[in-house]
C-alpha cells in the first residue's frame, strides 16, 4: 500500500503546478484517503483560479426575446408560438463562464460532496460552488478528457487532470445517488501516474539529462511497415553518448510463476530488448551506448527482482522501486539510477 503522502509527491511531479508555493502546505497534511487528498488539491486549486478569475469564452445561447438580438430562428419561433407573446427565438453569442472547463470542475465538486471526505472540506467546497452559479452541471461520462491547452487556459490543466482522477475513482450508484469509493487509484491509473512521475522527476531533478518519451523506429530491411506496433518508450534518458530506455511497470505481481519457479514477465523482457536493439541499430553510425531497464513498482512479494543482464552487447537491468518508503529514499534510488547507468 503506497502511503497517501507519497501519492501526493508523485502527483506533484506529474502536475508541476503542485510544487508552487501556494500548494506547499498540502505536503504536510495527513489525509485519511486519496479522495480527501484530491479534494484538498482541487479545493486549493479552484481557490487560486478564482483569484485570477474563471475563464470565459463566447457561448452560443438560444432563447425567446422581446428585443431582437443575434440570429432569428423563425421556424422555432413559429413552432413554439412565441410570436403570440411578441417575442422571437434568438440565437446569439454570450461571453460567459459557462464553458466546459468550468462545467467539469463544478460537476466534479458536486461528485466530491457525496464522497467520503471531511465535513470541513465539504463546507469549503460548497463555498467555492457559489462562484459557479452561472455554470451548468455536465455529465462527466461524456466528457472528452483529452483537452487542448495553451497559454490562455494552461492554469486549468492540473485542475482538469485532478477532476479526471476523481471522476474515474468515484462511482455513483444507480439506486440512491450516493457516491462510493472505488479503488481510487486502480492499477491502470497508478500505472499512468507512475510513468508520468518517473519522467517528470528526471526532467526536474536531473536537468543534465535529456528526459523524454521518444518513439523508436523499426529498423527494417525494406519499406514494408504496415501493422507494425508503435515503439513508444515510457522514459528515455540520455547524456552525451549514453542512452537508458526505462519501461515503467506497475503490476500486482513483479514476476510470473510456473511450476513453483519465478521468472520475469517474458513480454516485458522481450519488449525492452526490442526497444534497445532497434535504438542500437538506429545509432550504429555514431559512438553510443544503449541500455534498457524494467523498473517495477515494488509489491509485497518475497522475491524482488534486482538483476542485470548482458544481452547481445547491451545491458538490460530489472529493478524494483519501493514506493512504500520515505520519499527521500525513493528520490535516492532514482538519483542512483541516473548516476550509475548514465
From TrEMBL:
Ranges annotated as spanning the membrane: none
InterPro entries tied to this protein: McrC (IPR019292), McrC_bac (IPR014407)
GO molecular function: endonuclease activity; hydrolase activity
Keyword terms: Endonuclease, Hydrolase, Nuclease
Root EC class: hydrolase
Protein origin, superkingdom: Bacteria
Pfam families: McrBC
Keyword Hydrolase: yes
EC number(s) given by UniProt: 3.1.21.-
PANTHER family: PROTEIN MCRC, TYPE IV METHYL-DIRECTED RESTRICTION ENZYME ECOKMCRBC
Protein known as: 5-methylcytosine-specific restriction endonuclease system specificity protein McrC
Organism: Anaerobutyricum soehngenii
Lineage: Bacteria, Bacillati, Bacillota, Clostridia, Lachnospirales
Amino acid at each position: 500500500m503506497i502511503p497517501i503522502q507519497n501519492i501526493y509527491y508523485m502527483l506533484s511531479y506529474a502536475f508541476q503546478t503542485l510544487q508552487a508555493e501556494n500548494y506547499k502546505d498540502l505536503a504536510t497534511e495527513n489525509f485519511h484517503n486519496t479522495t480527501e487528498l484530491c479534494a484538498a488539491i482541487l479545493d486549493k486549486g479552484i481557490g487560486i483560479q478564482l483569484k485570477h478569475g474563471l475563464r470565459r469564452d463566447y457561448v452560443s445561447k438560444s432563447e425567446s426575446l422581446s428585443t431582437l438580438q443575434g440570429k432569428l430562428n423563425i421556424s422555432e419561433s413559429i413552432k413554439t408560438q412565441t410570436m403570440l407573446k411578441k417575442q422571437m427565438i434568438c440565437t446569439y453569442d454570450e461571453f460567459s463562464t459557462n464553458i466546459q472547463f468550468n462545467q467539469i470542475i463544478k460537476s466534479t465538486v458536486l461528485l466530491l460532496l457525496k464522497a467520503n471526505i471531511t465535513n470541513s472540506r465539504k463546507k469549503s467546497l460548497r463555498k467555492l460552488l457559489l462562484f459557479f452559479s452561472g455554470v451548468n452541471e455536465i455529465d462527466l461520462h461524456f466528457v472528452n478528457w483529452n483537452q487542448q491547452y495553451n497559454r490562455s487556459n494552461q492554469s486549468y490543466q492540473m485542475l482538469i487532470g485532478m477532476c479526471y482522477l476523481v471522476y474515474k475513482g468515484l462511482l455513483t450508484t444507480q439506486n440512491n445517488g450516493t457516491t462510493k469509493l472505488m479503488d481510487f487509484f486502480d492499477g491502470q491509473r497508478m500505472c499512468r501516474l507512475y510513468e508520468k512521475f518517473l519522467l517528470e522527476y528526471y526532467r526536474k531533478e536531473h536537468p543534465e539529462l535529456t528526459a523524454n518519451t521518444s518513439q523508436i523506429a523499426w529498423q527494417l530491411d525494406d519499406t514494408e511497415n504496415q501493422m507494425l506496433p508503435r515503439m513508444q518508450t515510457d522514459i528515455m534518458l540520455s547524456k552525451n553518448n549514453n542512452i537508458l530506455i526505462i519501461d515503467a511497470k506497475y503490476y500486482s505481481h513483479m514476476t510470473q510463476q510456473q511450476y513453483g519457479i519465478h521468472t520475469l514477465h517474458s513480454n516485458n523482457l522481450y519488449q525492452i530488448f526490442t526497444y534497445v536493439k532497434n535504438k542500437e541499430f538506429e545509432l550504429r553510425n555514431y559512438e553510443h551506448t544503449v541500455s534498457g531497464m524494467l523498473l517495477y513498482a515494488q509489491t509485497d512479494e518475497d522475491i524482488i527482482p534486482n538483476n542485470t543482464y548482458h544481452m547481445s552487447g547491451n545491458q538490460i537491468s530489472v529493478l524494483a522501486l519501493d514506493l512504500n518508503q520515505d520519499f527521500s529514499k525513493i528520490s535516492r534510488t532514482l538519483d542512483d539510477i541516473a548516476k550509475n547507468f548514465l
